[in-house]
Amino acid sequence: MPSPESGQNPSLSASAVPARSVAAHLLLGASLVLIAFNLRPLFSSLSVLLPEIIQATPLTSAGAGYLTTLPVLCLGLFAPVAPRLSQRIGPERCLLLVLLLLAIGTGLRGMGGLYGLFAGSALAGAAIATGNVLLPSVVKRDFPQRAALMTGLYTMALCGGAAFGAALTLPIAHYFNDAWRLGLAIWGLPAAVVFFMWAPQSLRSKAPSRHIRYSVRGLSRDPLAWQVSLFMGLQSALAYCVMGWMAPILRARGLDGVHAGFMTSVSVMLQVATCLLVPALAVRLRDQRMLNAALALIASAALIGLLFAPVSTLWFWAVIQGVGQGGLFAMAMTVIVLRSPDSHVAAHLSGMAQGIGYVLAASGPLLVGILHSATGSFEATVWVFAAVGLATAFNGWGAGRSALVKARSVSQDNTPVSGA
């Protein structure tokens, strides 16, 4: 079985890690966690303000679907660019660029009118795509003895950022006389603060050194690799339906905006627990087929419960959805490692899964918006949640098989890499 470190980017070799004092190491860890925190408020902050934005602008429900889909689509389109950019300027400078573009894009959503909403979302989505790919690799490179702890903190920060965005955006907008623009733009401030915190560390880092490059052959022709990628994409489609539309669905059920945002926030925060617990359980199982399928069905069934169950039970379904969705996300990341024969294949499988997966994931929130626009209610979206849930379970069953993808790592001189 591959080690938990096998998913690291081959361009981030252990030899590239500079010696650091304990204080510098702690500062580095805190900075990476804060960067992770900033990678999710973009999605959840928009969700809770969608009704106000639709009312105040010419944006329709279908247009809102396109708006929530755009940054998710960018996650898939720009993920393959991140490793190449990292090789040119170094991962630390890449993350500095991520924070700069994220702060500008997030701020632009609240200051550029309708066009600014779309342009800012695309710019910030491209930045988040790069951060998604590079941050885990940097964590695993610089914390080889604490990778599990740092991965847990990184995951908690991701969920925490989404939860804070859902819980605080509407109260902030209300405090400033229902200024929805400010409610969106204000999330550029944390990214700007972390930019100035990260700048001295990133600019002190050395330029990437030349190293042996590897290629991976046979990955795109392997059925298991495609099942892993589809599992990643389909679970992400459910996740971004939650971040993009859970709060509007709850408001349509009769909850006020603050209550709906708080419930969404709690549901997202509950994902932290399963993100930490499920991988430890998964590696002890003979295979992960049943676990993957069960989590997919739980997450989709809970979304359907939020649509049709009595209002008095909505908290129950929000909790169940958070548990199922958090487990799905953790398993999508875990099977990339478990299905890879070496670290180089794992890195390429991760890129394939994120590139294909996030493009596929964009269809989820888009279909929800289109159906709501066409029907005037969210009830028709039950077919989206049911179909995506079943497809996730099917591919999760395949991705959970106790097998390895049939791909191999080859160095520049076409020599197969053994024991990589």
Helix and strand layout, with pairings?
Blueprint: H1 22-37, H2 41-56, H3 61-78, H4 81-89, H5 91-109, H6 113-142, H7 147-175, H8 180-185, H9 188-204, E1 214-217, H10 223-252, H11 257-282, H12 289-308, H13 314-338, H14 343-361, H15 363-375, H16 382-399, E2 408-411
Antiparallel strand pairs: 1-2
Helix pairs in contact: 1-6, 1-7, 1-9, 2-3, 2-7, 2-10, 3-6, 3-14, 3-15, 4-5, 4-6, 5-6, 5-9, 6-7, 7-11, 10-11, 10-12, 10-13, 10-14, 10-15, 10-16, 11-13, 12-13, 12-16
3D architecture notes:
This protein has 16 helices and 2 strands. Residues 1-17 have low confidence and may be disordered. It is 74% helix and 2% strand. The radius of gyration is 21 Å and the shape is globular. The chain has 2 domains: 22-211, Up-down Bundle (Growth Hormone, Chain: A), CATH 1.20.1250.20; 214-420, Growth Hormone, Chain: A (Up-down Bundle). It has a two-stranded antiparallel sheet. It has 420 residues and is mainly alpha-helical. Helix 3 packs parallel to helix 6, helix 4 crosses helix 6 and helix 12 (289-308) packs antiparallel against helix 16 (382-399).
Kindly list the characteristics that best describe this protein.
single chain, mainly alpha, two-stranded antiparallel ribbon, 16 helices, 2 strands, disordered N terminus
